[in-house]
Design a protein that fits this description.
Strand content: 15-25%
Shape: elongated
Helix content: 25-40%
Largest sheet: 10 strands, mixed
Pfam family, one: NAD_binding_3
Pathway: Amino-acid biosynthesis; L-threonine biosynthesis; L-threonine from L-aspartate: step 3/5; Amino-acid biosynthesis; L-methionine biosynthesis via de novo pathway; L-homoserine from L-aspartate: step 3/3
Keywords: Amino-acid biosynthesis, Methionine biosynthesis, NADP, Oxidoreductase, Threonine biosynthesis
Protein name: Homoserine dehydrogenase
Number of strands: 18
EC number: 1.1.1.3
Number of helices: 13
Oligomer: single chain
CATH topology of the largest domain: Dihydrodipicolinate Reductase, domain 2
Bound molecules: 1,4-dihydronicotinamide adenine dinucleotide, the ligand N[C@@H](CC=O)C(=O)O, sodium ion
Number of domains: 3
Distance between the termini: 52 Å
């Protein structure tokens, strides 16, 4: 067997400790697949003394993680720290700058600095891989970048955030409150260090921007992703969606038809109960890529958590050991196409509109008049049950016929500031 591949691990939290456990438990299988043993030389994290349930005594310790990159006994640096900038980015630059292999699970950093790092990797002829950064344990990066490499891909969409999917599906099945379920997702190790990244759609947007660049061969453009999170969704929305035959899921969706304009959106969608994504629950993720020869490819599996994420990290290390090291975005950075953003106003779809309104005469007439004036056609309406003696606001849901998004935006503009509305309307598209 060839010489061992020596790695350094920065970050020993949920994922880092998972990687150590995986390398220990499956060492023989991994060595067989990699063609050589994978050995940890050195590690770094904030606190050397913390009990992580793994034995670190056999590894050198660096207080300053960037020093891992300069060590002679390290071939590949594995970054499991997190954060788009700061020490993670410094380490990435340092590792690639030293010509070391670089593996990361950090979607925030790849979304913000992926092109710079990929260029550095090319320049230094150093492999860079990031399978764990998108959809955790699912081989989505490999599937799209390598498995579907022969295809033109026009659309990629899916469930890209395990925390949100866990929250929405738990709220759906148990009727529990948003806050309770979020704390549980944090305890289970699914959430980001700052969970607003999860619930406001930022984490899913990081992943979507990466998938779009990889799948469409376009320059990564995180700033272009439209982002709406799930923090405004109530149990009543979930119940109304169910009554209409839908479930609510946070969906990331990108398309770039015929090499044209790029559209990237993360938002809660109403997904028909019969759609494959409707059955995806808990921290599971699912990525759909539509190839012009392969057809619809659906990748599904655990999108977060120590084991699945460690599995993706170690798969990347095995690829480097094998010498399977395509460019990080499947083609050289200079070959990625520049694109313009698509105008969402021209997209056609149906929408669910939720209003919280004062329970008095004339309110519904005002809303429907705004719809009429903007050219929005209403297909159905549903009103939350309201106790006789309760005079508080009520929740009204409407589903529109298919139409241009711009018309719904116009209707919402017409209603802005209306005293009939107790809060701003919530607009969710129906996944077609
Ligand atoms: N937890 C999950 O399910 C998944 C996480 N990821 C990504 O993996 C990376 C790591 O995530 P987790 O293990 O969940 O995070 P974590 O918070 O459990 O662990 C982070 C580790 O980095 C160390 N660290 C953080 N800031 C540091 C600093 N300034 N200096 C030195 N050490 C520092 C911490 O001490 C800890 O050991 C992140 O980029 C995350 O987005 C990706 C997919 C799934
Ligand atoms: N916080 C992320 C972790 C994996 O990427 C999520 O919930 O999906
Ligand atoms: Na993955």
């Amino acid at each position: 067997m060839a010489e061992q591949l020596r790695i350094a691990l920065a970050g020993l939290g949920t994922v880092g400790a998972g990687v150590i456990r995986l390398l220990e438990e499956n060492g023989d299988t991994i060595a067989q697949r990699a063609g050589r043993p994978i050995a940890i030389s050195a590690v770094s994290a904030r606190d050397r003394t913390k009990d992580r349930g793994v034995d670190l005594s056999g590894y050198a310790w660096e207080d300053d993680m960037t020093r891992l990159a300069a060590r002679d006994d390290v071939d590949v640096v594995v970054e499991l720290v997190g954060g788009s900038d700061g020490p993670a980015l410094a380490l990435a630059r340092e590792a690639l700058g030293h010509g070391k292999g670089f593996v990361t699970a950090n979607k925030a950093m790849v979304a913000h600095h992926g092109l710079e790092l990929a260029e550095l990797a090319e320049q230094e002829d150093a492999p860079m891989r990031y399978e764990a950064a998108v959809a955790g344990g699912i081989p989505a990066i490999k599937g799209i970048g390598e498995g579907a490499a022969a295809n033109r891909i026009a659309r990629i969409y899916g469930i890209l955030n395990g925390t949100c999917n866990y929250i929405l599906s738990e709220m759906e099945s148990s009727g529990r409150d948003f806050g309770d379920v979020l704390s549980e997702a944090q305890v289970l190790g699914y959430a980001e260090a700052d969970p607003t990244f999860d619930i406001e759609g930022v984490d899913a947007a990081h992943k979507l921007a990466i998938l779009a660049a990889l799948g469409f061969g376009t320059r990564l453009d995180f700033a272009d992703v439209e982002m709406i999170g799930i923090s405004r969704i109530r149990a009543a929305d979930i119940a109304q969606a169910r009554a209409l035959g839908y479930v609510i899921r946070l969906i990331g969706l990108a398309d770039c038809e015929d090499g044209g304009r790029l559209f990237q959106r993360v938002a809660p969608y109403l997904v028909p109960a019969s759609h494959p994504l409707a059955g995806v629950s808990g921290a599971t993720n699912a990525v759909v890529a539509e190839g012009n020869f392969a057809g619809r490819l659906l990748f599904e599996g655990a999108g977060a958590g120590d084991g699945p994420t460690a599995s993706a990290v170690v798969a990347d290390i095995i690829d480097i050991a094998r010498g399977n090291t395509p460019p990080p975005f499947a083609v050289p950075v200079s070959a990625l196409r520049h694109t313009e953003s698509a105008d969402p106003a021209n997209r056609r779809n149906r929408a669910y509109l939720r209003f919280v309104v004062a329970d008095r005469p004339g309110v519904l007439a005002e809303i429907t008049a705004a719809m009429r004036d903007a050219g929005v056609s209403i297909e159905s309406m549903i009103q939350e049950g309201h106790p006789e003696d309760d005079e508080g606001p009520v929740l009204v849901g409407m589903v529109t016929h298919e139409g241009r998004e711009g018309t719904v935006t116009k209707a919402m503009d017409l209603l802005e500031g209306s005293p009939s509305l107790a809060e701003a309307p919530l607009v969710m598209r129906l996944l077609g």
